[in-house]
Amino acid sequence: MHFAFPPRKTSNPPPYAVRPSRSTPMLRRNQLRLLAIIALGLLSFIFIASRLFRSSSGSAQSEYIPPGTPPVVIVTVLDPKGNPSFNEMVKQNREHYAEKHGYTTFFPNPADYPLKTAPVSWAKVPAMRHAMTLFPHSTWYFFLDVHALIANPSISIEEHITAPARIEELEIVDVPVVPPDSVIKTYALKGDKVDLIICQDHEGIGRESFLIRRGEWAKYFLDAWFDPLYRAYNFQKAELHALEHIVQWHGTMLAKLVLVPQRIINSFHSDRAGVSEANIYQEGDFIINFTGCDQGGKTCETVMRQYAT
């Protein structure tokens, strides 16, 4: 009788078939999801950084500006309880100039802003922010104090101040940002990178006449300046000392600021005490500032009327 023997095993058996792991596709999906999250976070960071710090000229070039948009908005805060003829003189001075150059004007009421117990001089800050909301496509916002006049209406703001090449020609470099002895000094900037143009006077930074360029930085700057903490701090000179603090100790502010000679945007009337001869108004100057004009028994309207245009 013959018995069937099982087939003899080979000494070189075939390799075992490896079954695919069910966890491999899941691991790959998790890795791809992680990479997608990282990429999205990186793109978000780049977008936010570019929005905040890109040059304003670059954003202006890429943004659609409707036809008829005024390139400059002149902002002056008027006291509705003040002398009506004085207010009208100031308004006409700005309006005639704006019409000549294709600009526009904005005369807000300080009562429209949440100043609470803060001095009314703080109103200039939300007023500039308000102007940016009303005229969102304009390029420059020019704050001019109620006690200042445009003395030479033939001068355009672009040619006189804001053209990039003109900014680079005017900017004052390597001086204390807050006179006389601040350790923080100004440095040279490209004209198209500048978003705040301001001057100094014998009291410090000249907050009575300045220009801000439209953009994310401008909104950030004004919001920081109007911070409730600063308004409640009771600075001796209110918004001026708050401004001097932020431009000295916050590098983001100084990185967009240039100082220009005072007589470019804020010549003083000869009756103002403590003013150096170099900064007193001379015929042909753009702006003449009459702060303190109600002293010595005179009214501001009487002093200013002879220079109104």
TrEMBL record:
InterPro entries registered for this protein in UniProt: Glyco_trans_34, Nucleotide-diphossugar_trans
GO biological process terms on file: protein N-linked glycosylation
Keyword terms: Glycosyltransferase, Membrane, Transferase, Transmembrane, Transmembrane helix
Cellular component aspect of the GO annotation: mannan polymerase complex
Record region (Disordered): 1-22
A single MF term (Gene Ontology): alpha-1,6-mannosyltransferase activity
Keyword Glycosyltransferase: yes
Top-level taxon of origin: Eukaryota
UniProt feature coiled coil, ranges: none
Pfam family, one: Glyco_transf_34
Spans traversing the lipid bilayer: 32-53
Similarity comment: family membership: Belongs to the glycosyltransferase 34 family.
Protein name: Galactosyl transferase GMA12/MNN10 family-domain-containing protein
